[in-house]
Amino acid sequence: MAIWLEQASGDFEERFSAFLSTKREVSDDVNAVVKAIIDDVRTRGDAALIDYSARFDKVDLASAGLRVREEEIDAAVAATSADVLDALRLAAERIEKHHARQMPKDDLYEDALGVGLGSRWTAVDAVGLYVPGGTASYPSSVLMNALPAKVAGVPRVVMVVPAGGGVVNPAVLAAARIAGVSEIYRVGGAQAVAALAYGTETIAPVAKIVGPGNAYVAAAKRQVFGQVGIDMIAGPSEVLVIADRDNNPDWIAADLLAQAEHDLGAQSILVTNDRAFGEAVEQAVERQLKTLSRSQTAAQSWADFGAIILVKDLASSLPLANRIAAEHLELAVADPDALLSGIRNAGAIFVGRHTPEVIGDYIGGSNHVLPTARSARFSSGLSVLDYVKRTSILRLGPEQLAALAPAAITLAHSEGLDAHARSVSIRLNRGG
Amino acid sequence: MAIWLEQASGDFEERFSAFLSTKREVSDDVNAVVKAIIDDVRTRGDAALIDYSARFDKVDLASAGLRVREEEIDAAVAATSADVLDALRLAAERIEKHHARQMPKDDLYEDALGVGLGSRWTAVDAVGLYVPGGTASYPSSVLMNALPAKVAGVPRVVMVVPAGGGVVNPAVLAAARIAGVSEIYRVGGAQAVAALAYGTETIAPVAKIVGPGNAYVAAAKRQVFGQVGIDMIAGPSEVLVIADRDNNPDWIAADLLAQAEHDLGAQSILVTNDRAFGEAVEQAVERQLKTLSRSQTAAQSWADFGAIILVKDLASSLPLANRIAAEHLELAVADPDALLSGIRNAGAIFVGRHTPEVIGDYIGGSNHVLPTARSARFSSGLSVLDYVKRTSILRLGPEQLAALAPAAITLAHSEGLDAHARSVSIRLNRGG
User: Fold this and answer.
1) Cα–Cα distance measured from residue B205 to residue A97, given in angstroms and rounded to the nearest whole number
2) A367 in a labelled binding site
3) What does the entry list as the binding residues for substrate (chains A, B) (predicted)?
């Protein structure tokens, strides 16, 4: 049973604020362990990777080899069913097309004074993609993380994935091939992150590391940040569904459960202006829970973090939605456009009754790596922009320098930076 | 005396690698102190700010008031010389014009299937700008951090600045007025960062915190990250000058010293293909050092971290420059365009002999907040993009859902996520 919050009740603001600040994640303090692993990989390289993989993943990389060979990827593709391969290819095509529109353009121009100014975008030289092992090893995530890098023109995309018991999910390898991943290594955990950041005999270092992982992987990413870039540290997933009473309660219940089944920290929130509809959804959730393969996870996260918020009218949902700043926001209402323009904070918005969030997870074309835990207030989902960087360019001739020099010299002196002033004045042949 | 590295010598790669990994910063472990301050501000609010300001800044905020009043800003503007005000206004105008070109455009479209896709950009609701106190309190930095927020359309830009001994640099207040800062509070350190992140009775919380600061401020920003967004944690500044022998050695020496005077961790590197020119620059540095107000700082950072790298030819400088990935890169050569296209990693490039880096610090129009410590390999300078976030939008009707459903359902089942599959299939009237 999820909690109910009613806007009309006197303690709503207090209860809503408390709800907003609920922590859904216990982050174990694994920093010391992770630091030791990183130091060891920096010192011993491949030998450390082999040792940790034997211990944590029960796999003998000394004989299997660190790098996954082309013929192994061939075999994985052959072992993946045709309909999954077709679905991955369709998804890849749609993701690639959508992300191609995100590629920023260089902007080089001269202003009225003749000063050359500009922004030039270049791809990151090499990117490492972490893929979790076991049941959280999702081929769709491989596409979502690797394809924007390919679109950005990253020359080298390296994937690491732990081979628990020697096995890597074949569909993950197939997705990597479809997404144009350049190299795959069967290593995971903090040791894989260390190898990507600092390099070993076999794995050349990258400039940026992306992708989800457990507490050890997250801690390792934080620790190597600076040496390399990292993407956001994703928290548990969440969905906010704003729905009027003219929805089929079963559809909305299914959407809430799609989120809840992810993991124990997942959060599903329904905002509605109709109490009876809210109750109908709640009953539909209970019914559907009985037939889910992951019903235990879904039931638990719905009970712990699920919520039904009853608002006075749909317009009242907007300020709440902006404070929640959900990763995923569904607008299942008769006139979604009336709400759409009022949403400022959301990772992705799914518009109308026929756009379940799951379409965005797989096949819509937009990215499914999105800001969690209210961070949509200040950050964006993964995009091509995460794989490029901008260099500014400034170009002056003697005339432009003469025009701008006085202001630069004035400001330099006012900040007490004499050498700054001289670096400009000396070029005016007026001495230092 | 800076070190010399010669590409022609046998141990160059080894020495260059060691040079690249030189740490220029000792980060004190202030995490425990900072955590206590943050917790205290969260608990006691304004009262904690008043206590810490009395202790660290020797200022009585209970009587002065936390917020800087409009008439105080009026007085600061009146106390700033006309030529400094004019220079700040010219800088602001140029910065604003340049940054207006960075504003990303929404992209909403329908694909061939009729699926609505899109990216919508919105400004961050509220931004906090940290400005250091004392000698590092630079009005130019206020412009560089605040104006892109204004261009982005951030409704609320809050500045915090410690008032050591009760005083805030008048030019900093004048710059804040020129840059359109909405609120100014005379509080600094970890306590100011905590107030911006969590709010107090007087200071409403923001969604993102930017701006430079000391070790306490940097640690506080790291600790509140997640609650709010933060910009990069900037390290000491650096310049790489690629110069041929046809430069005036005094000009290049002045550029190296403009960087070196910043602080003890600053780094100035000359790459040249002419030994005699390198020696002439070295001598010019020694001469100019004698007449600088900050000669002690400049001499020390030049001695500790300065370098002259002698390359075989100018083209050989490109791979080195890409590995150094300097914050600032000057191309003081006869044909800068021949090198420009080969540079992949640099925060900003200053093209030709008449573009000293200092122009970019103040008046060029581009931003002077740039990636340090080799992070230009994976990150960019501050821009309008740091003050906006992107929401993706997906919109399907029944036909589009029917077209994409099979692939989504296939992938959901292949990942073992039954509720995901049901959330799509239930809308096809084929049951769960």
Assistant:
1) 39
2) no
3) 237, 259, 262, 328, 361, 415, 420
CB atoms within 10 A of CB A56: 18
B290 to chain A: closest CA residue: A419
The CA distance from A107 to B98, in Å, is: 10
Q: Which of A355, A233, A373 is nearest to B113 (CA)?
A: A355
Average pLDDT of the segment spanning B316-345: 97
Hey, are the CB atoms on A117 and B102 less than 8 Å from each other?
no
Tokens representing A73 are: 């990827």
Interior angle at CA B149, CA B96 and CA B134, nearest 5: 90
Distance between CA A218 and CA A215 in Å, rounded?
5
Q: Which domain holds residue B325?
A: 3-25+235-364
Helices (H) and strands (E) in chain B, counts: 18, 14
Can you give the pLDDT at residue A403? 98
Residue A258: both structure tokens together: 């799609």
Q: How far apart are CA B170 and CA B157, in angstroms?
A: 19
What residues contact B415, with CB distance under 8 A and at least 6 apart? A138, A139, A140
Could you tell me if A187 and A66 lie in one domain? yes
- In B235-364, where do the E strands start and end? 238-243, 267-272, 307-310, 328-332, 348-351
Q: What percentage of chain A reaches a pLDDT higher than 90?
A: 91
Confirm whether A370 is domain-assigned: no
Based on the fold, state whether residues B194 and B51 are members of the same structural domain.
Answer: yes
- CB distance A363–B404 less than 8 Å? yes
- Per residue in B89-115, pLDDT (tens digit) is 999 999 999 999 999 999 999 999 999
Residue whose token pair is 């918020």: A309
- The CATH number linked to A411 is 1.20.5.1300
B296 labelled binding-site residue: no
- Coil, strand or helix at B190: helix
Q: Assess whether pLDDT exceeds 90 at residue B36.
A: yes
Cβ-nearest to A411 among B87, B226, B427: B87
Angle between the N-to-C axes of helices B398-414 and A82-100, in degrees from 0 to 180, rounded to the nearest 10: 120
